[in-house]
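Sample A.
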Amino acid sequence: DNIRVNALCPGGTWTPRIRGYMARFPQHEKMMTEVCAMQRMA
């Protein structure tokens, strides 16, 4: 959902919390990068 995505990627940037999440779930990094890119374009 967009609210969660916006919280995860404010302005399409990585937050320290997200960096920690990515460290635990590296397989999600590509998906999150794409989601953040979409947020930047939105």
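Sample B, a different protein:
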Amino acid sequence: MDTGNTFSNLGTGSQNVISSGTQNNNSGSGSQYNANTIAFHQHNQHHNANLLADLRVTDPRDDKTRIEGTKGGLLTDSYVWVLQNPDFCQWRDDKDQRLLWVKGDPGKGKTMLLCGIIDDLQATRKGKPLSYFFCQATDELLNTATAVLRGLIFMLLDQAPSLVSYIKKKYDIAGKALFQDKNAWQAMSEIFKDMLQDSNLQGVCLLVDALDECSTGLKQLLMLMTETSRSTSAKWLVSSRNWSQIEEQLRPVAQSLSLELNAESVAAAVKFYIKHEVKELAKAKKYSSQTRTSIRHYLYRHAGDTFLWAALVRQELKRVPEFEARERVKTFPPGLDTLYQQMMQQICDSTVPERCKQFLAITAVVYRPLSLNEYGSIYDLPSDIELDDSECEDSDSEDSSCDESNPDLVKSLRELASRCGSFLTIREDIVYFVHQSAKDFLMNKAYAAFDQIFPDGIAHQHHAIFSRSLEVLSKTLRRDIYELRNPGSSVEDISPPNPDPLGPVKYSCMHWIDHLQQANSADSPARGDLRDNGSVHAFLKCHYLHWLKAQSLLQGMPQAVLKMQKLQTLVRDVDWNACQQTLEGHSDGVWSVTFSPDGRQLASGSGDNTVKLWDTATGQCQQTLEGHSSLENVFEVAIQEPTGDPMGRVWEKPSFIADQFSYRKF
């Protein structure tokens, strides 16, 4: 008789196994467990944890906390008006109203409005599924349609783990590539649509902020929103600037809530915000009541119903003492762009204008917000505060010390960032633009600020970042950089040392090829970098394996493969002439050519009444075939399989009557 499965009885009593198979007979008190089932369950949990880790591009809940913290906290009175707005109430309460578009100009408080709506929905819809995502154009992890879906699905799986079944089958085959390869959008959108049909997601609310900051795949994302708002019970609430292309896509199914059309409510919210912020400022700076009143009323009159304008002025006032504040506030012009222009002029008039402009230029072109530590790797710092890497020339040396972070360096960079007007803000040592409109202003060629921070053009700035990245990587990367000693270690089991030698160069490691691509133009110095014995060639000869190992440790191997494909294209563009070889021998024009099946031979038919057979490797003519009159013209050639004999298709009459031709073997 077969023994069946193994059981463990953790109490008194007896256990009877009568026949083969899974047995559940337990007489007496105690617990009985199927060991195989336990092992399977634990494996399943581990597998699902890996799936979630690979799916996660960000946790939108953390993004919400960061955004609220960066903006000084969420004030209830700055958004509560929308909860009584008829358009919002209809979207919330009417099951047939499934898509609401909140639109408004920059700085009107759309993001904080959505943060408030999220809090209200979580409080009033307890137990019902809710997912959201905050797009951010300055961060490559947050500015694609695929990232939006990954973020939304990540939150839904956290609330309803059973939904993982919609992903598991494809994930078991593709692994992490399911979420990252060139077909990721197609795969994720199909999974998402199937998921929304699940009974666990009936009436789910999906919120996406700043659609205008979705730089890649916006059209596909909008189409998905309109499709699912018709075919499922999901409710969408999205926000963006007043973009016509977004309106065109959403108009057929969406109801809109315009902040400009609700100017009175927005103005009241801005007024409350100003009152609160001036009160906090007065407390911190110990303003007199007269100074506080004077500043508050000036902001009331000039804010133009714009939260961001008031926030920028408050930030500037924090830099000056009370005796300057009353006069200083009067210098701030109304309007965001005019305020940005004034901030830029103040930078130009500062004691370190070039340093600030260089810092802004880097921040404007990088692919994601950088930590201060990472700035140290790509910012051209003065020599007196640069890392001493004189001992790092031999990057295979285990005594290399250029991986250490430098507290003085970080301190200097923090001070420099603070001198960049109020364009930038720092949270947890990561530098962000205070608002997308700040970056838009600096990147707008219509303003003088563009020429001030990019005097040689954007491509030159990309090249500077590329060059600095390659330099610091050459000094940092080395064999067994984490000193693991065991080449078979699994990446999942590796904890970075403290300090992490790859921490300061993580961005450079991931993006040096991207910046090289952006710098590559006909008159760019990057052309020289890509040639034989250029900087790229030298780096790859010395550090290609070190770089791949670093990418693996940073869990960036899928991206590394794509980067190398990109680099291969760049090298081909530089060094591969369109004309690879010239075959000479015909005395008249060539009418037709064809390759042999194995690609080793080329046959050419010419108006000189010959067919020539060429060796493609050497370019030598192997055979010249003749055999028809001077009146005939060869217009098509072929190579006969399997013999490889050339054949010519010829006109039999000089009149070129199309139905009078034949193949002739020479």
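Observation for Sample B: The radius of gyration is 33 Å.
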